[in-house]
């Protein structure tokens, strides 16, 4: 099968031929229709996960997937061949990812059915970013009317978090440069958003909008410790970038380090919101599998939202 692979790290991903995987007991073999690029994939290619996770070469990259069940491993219940599914590859090693024509995944975790109303393109870009956004918001639990600063609002996780936070009635302050970035973020929701330019004096801009400090911060990009200083006493911060309480000098704030939990319940809840029209997956460009290296380059150059990759 054709797949996006790495023969070593750090390296630039390339498209090559590798063997088609077979499902182990408890696994599904999924024919992948659509995948997407995530920060995790870029970090893998850059070598940032060396020493953190086992790497098995040639390493097929990719976390998100949407497609159809091609075969069932021994002992699998609750799924059938031909069923449309989506989710996130969650294995204790790197090597059998989803930027490929086929992928094997656990039937018990990281996969859910695709409901009516959820397109395959949206499903293939939803899993990891949507879970990270939802888990981050659930960690800081913004109440109606509380102010949430979202740093990294133009990325896939941030664009989903903006919508989810606004839907909860939070006042959202989002980072975006004037121009295309600002237009992209304001187009995510009908709710009123306050934008701050992260290339300028970010603290001064935020304090002008929230003199007493913001109630919560989603640290998806930027200097986490600096963002924590913008919280009011008792404020909460959720970081998808590994920030811990030890790295924050600001007293009286709570720091949550987020590892996206792509359980079937969360995936199903996110899918239902997209299918109902309450949430939009911000896919801004789609690449064929053979152009996946170009998708990685666009991601590294700061592309807005999510970049999808068609694999079949």
What this model shows, in words?
The protein is an alpha/beta fold. It has helices spanning 39-45, 120-140, 156-167, 180-186, 202-209, 224-228, 264-276, 292-300, and strands spanning 2-6, 14-17, 27-36, 54-60, 64-72, 84-88, 93-96, 102-106, 111-113, 147-151, 171-175, 193-196, 214-219, 231-239, 254-257, 283-288, 306-310. 26% of the residues lie in helices and 31% in strands. It starts with a strand and ends with a strand. The strands form three sheets. Strands 3, 5, 6, 8, 9, 16 and 17 form a seven-stranded mixed sheet that branches. Strands 12-11-10-13-14-15 form a six-stranded parallel sheet, sandwiched between helices.
The number of helical runs is: 8
Overall 3D shape: globular
**Helical content class:** 25-40%
Largest sheet: 7 strands, mixed
Q: What's the N-to-C terminus distance?
A: 10 Å
The whole-number mean of residue pLDDT values reads 98
Unreliable residue stretches: none
Order of helices and strands: EEEHEEEEEEHEHEHEHEHEEHEHE
What is the count of β-strands?
17
DSSP strand content = 25-35%
Radius of gyration: 19 Å
**Alpha-beta classification:** alpha/beta
Write out key terms for the chains shown:
single chain; 312 residues; alpha/beta; 7-stranded mixed sheet; 6-stranded parallel sheet; 8 helices
